[in-house]
């Protein structure tokens, strides 16, 4: 067993200890000490990092875990030759610890706020590297409720209530009426007591008074299987997050208007303009395709009962050549069209009017056999994406010549 120094003092960041055991963990050194201020990942809170000093060496502690027997395993970066029984000095990364204390203590206040206001218990807590979340056992959660909980939590932070640590027996804990009892039976329970606001069993590192949490900022809420998830950040993280949000909004506002608060209105306006513009563009393209079709058919002679048209477009996309193929085959009952576009991803569209004797799917296979790429289709309509555009004109011209000569036919 490792004596947990943080149980009694979350602000203790330096300590001396004796090495009880060493172990190799994936080419790294693992240390078990008789006492430690390092917090191992547990109860939703992630581990501390820091340093272990031994003689002239100072090695980074990159991970801390809890073993089944209650000992704390410190995993060091690199290898350290160290004897069992030797003395080491531990240093906690203070900034990371402070951040964890702010997030975790903020979580207690927030969870208690949801219970006080709406009787919504917290069923789980997650501390991420960017933000934290709690899952509330509730069917519904409104924006007004989220705002009320945020307000109460921040009031409690500003009241700077003391946060005490107490150790009690199971029986004593039952009588105290804790917000949350631990799932495992232990003879002694560690309680975190936020004066006159919240009392709960917890092994985490906490602030000494709620003012040290700083602010508590609620962000996203989402429906999850067991209730509602509330994402939040506290203390310096909340400031960093708010700054990031503000920078993002300012940059966005700079692109379109002068005030960040006008952004939603501005974006709605852009969306409406884009919708209208898409509609106009669609209409224009259809009219253009209609005109192209008329002109192309007028310039094409009928040969062996078909009007065979080929064309490679370097300035019109797949969408347009599909429209055009549609118009051509609709305008003339004897049209056979082999179209290509080299705009963006090169594309092929082959189509014939219903009743024409060729097989567009087979023709597409033949074209792609020469150009590479994938595609296919039916007898009257086929689409493909050639792997190359080199030789495209030639392939289309040769296929058209084959059709005219009657050597390529499905049913004739
Ligand atoms: Zn806690």
Structure report:
With 412 residues, the protein is α+β, with helices and mostly antiparallel strands. 35% of the residues lie in helices and 30% in strands. The chain is built from eight helices and 20 strands. The chain has helices at 94-118, 143-158, 170-176, 235-256, 263-298, 318-331, 360-371, 392-405, and strands at residues 3-4, 14-25, 28-33, 35-36, 50-54, 57-66, 72-76, 87-92, 122-127, 132-136, 163-169, 188-194, 198-201, 216-224, 227-234, 307-313, 335-341, 347-352, 373-377, 381-386. The strands form five sheets. The protein has a six-stranded antiparallel beta barrel with strand order 2-3-7-6-5-8. β2 (14-25) and β3 form a beta hairpin. α1 crosses α2 (143-158), α5 packs across α6 (318-331) and α7 runs antiparallel to α8. The longest helix has 36 residues, at 263-298. The mean pLDDT is 93. The structure holds zinc ion. Zinc ion (ZN) is lined by residues 104, 108, 192, 202, 204.
């Amino acid at each position: 067993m490792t004596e947990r120094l943080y149980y009694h003092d979350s602000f203790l960041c330096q300590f001396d200890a004796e090495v009880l055991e060493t172990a190799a963990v994936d080419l790294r050194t693992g240390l078990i000490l008789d006492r430690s201020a390092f917090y191992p990942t547990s109860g939703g809170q992630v581990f501390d990092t820091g340093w272990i000093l031994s003689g002239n060496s100072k090695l980074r502690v990159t991970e801390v875990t809890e073993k089944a027997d209650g000992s704390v395993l410190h995993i060091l970066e690199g290898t350290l030759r160290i004897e069992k029984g030797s003395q080491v000095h531990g240093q906690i990364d203070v900034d990371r610890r402070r951040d964890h204390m702010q997030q975790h203590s903020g979580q207690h206040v927030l969870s208690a706020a949801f219970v006080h206001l709406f009787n919504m218990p917290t069923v789980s807590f997650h501390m991420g590297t960017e933000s934290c979340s709690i899952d509330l056992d509730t069917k519904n959660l409104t924006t007004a409720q989220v705002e009320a909980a945020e307000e109460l939590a921040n009031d409690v932070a500003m009241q700077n209530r003391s946060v005490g640590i107490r150790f009690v027996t199971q029986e004593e804990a039952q009588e105290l009426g804790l917000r949350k009892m631990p799932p495992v039976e232990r003879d002694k329970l560690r309680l975190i007591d936020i004066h006159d606001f919240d009392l709960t069993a917890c092994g985490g590192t906490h602030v000494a008074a709620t003012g040290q949490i700083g602010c508590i900022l609620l962000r996203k809420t989402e429906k999850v299987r067991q209730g509602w998830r509330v994402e939040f950040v506290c203390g310096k993280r909340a400031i960093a997050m708010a700054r990031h949000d503000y920078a993002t909004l300012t940059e966005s506002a700079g692109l379109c208007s002068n005030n960040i608060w006008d952004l939603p209105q501005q974006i709605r306006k852009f969306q409406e303009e884009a919708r209208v513009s898409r509609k106009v563009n669609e209409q224009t393209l259809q009219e253009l395709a209609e005109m192209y079709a008329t002109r192309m058919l007028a310039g094409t002679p009928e040969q062996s009962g078909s009007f065979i048209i080929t064309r490679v477009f370097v300035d019109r996309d797949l969408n347009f050549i599909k429209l055009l193929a549609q118009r051509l085959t609709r305008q003339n009952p004897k049209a056979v069209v082999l179209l290509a576009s080299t705009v963006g991803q090169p594309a092929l569209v082959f189509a014939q009017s219903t009743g024409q004797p060729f097989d567009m799917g087979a023709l597409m296979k033949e074209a792609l056999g020469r150009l590479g790429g994938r595609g296919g289709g039916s007898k009257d309509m086929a689409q493909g994406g050639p792997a190359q555009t080199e030789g495209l004109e030639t392939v289309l011209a040769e296929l058209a010549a084959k059709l005219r000569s009657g050597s390529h036919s499905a049913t004739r």
